[in-house]
Every structure is written in C-alpha cells, then in structure tokens.
User: Which sequence fits this backbone?
C-alpha cells in the first residue's frame, strides 16, 4: 500500500553557523528549511488524535535544535543530519529536506534538496 499523506513545514526560518570559508562561519546565517514527511494519517484522522500522527511542532523544535547544535561547512551535511534525525525520532516513512541559503550575490538563493526513506 502506497502512502501519499504528507505533512509539510514550509520555509522554516533558522539561523546557524554554516559555510565553507572560516569567515563565513563567524556569524549565524539565515536559512529557510522546508520539510515534507510521509506518514499514513488514517488512524489519526479516524480518532482525531495527535498521538497517532507526527506532531509538527515537535519536528520544528528538533530541527531548530539540530541547526544550533554545531557549525557545519555544507548545507548538504545539515540536510542529512535533519533527515536522519527525523527518521530516527518519528515514524515517517520518508522525509524530504530542502534548505535555502542566501549567500551568492545577484541570486534569490541557492538550495539543496534530499529525500531519505526508512531502510534506504
């Protein structure tokens, strides 16, 4: 049976020390993170019970904690850290993480996007 139910948290604003050059990591940078978590909502919707779904506020707090825990050089590393933590902590079948970074002049943003699944 295919799961097509998705929780989306769009453009969560976080600040973290990230960047390849040392001077880029001297101060926090603003990033926007979008998450898509696949989960079967059937049980939660039948009982109107948050215990049978993924509490997106708890996901939000986890992501904020991961971003502030340590500095990183690559947004790719941050995306992997977020995806693996969500899969470890929640019963999501699949998670997609998109991170937007605002570092290049004359561009809206650069981004990375990854998708990770249980057992993959």
Assistant:
């Amino acid at each position: 049976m295919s799961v097509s139910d998705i929780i989306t948290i769009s453009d969560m604003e976080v600040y973290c020390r990230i960047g390849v050059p040392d001077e880029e990591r001297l101060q926090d940078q603003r990033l926007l993170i979008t998450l898509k978590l696949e989960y079967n909502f059937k049980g939660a919707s039948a009982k109107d019970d948050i215990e049978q779904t993924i509490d997106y506020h708890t996901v939000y707090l986890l992501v904020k904690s991961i971003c502030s825990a340590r500095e990183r050089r690559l947004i790719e590393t941050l995306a992997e850290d977020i995806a693996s933590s969500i899969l470890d902590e929640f019963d999501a079948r699949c998670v997609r993480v998109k991170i937007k970074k605002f570092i290049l002049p004359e561009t809206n943003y650069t981004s990375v996007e990854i998708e990770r699944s249980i057992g993959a």
In short: The beta strands are 6-16, 29-38, 94-101, 110-117.
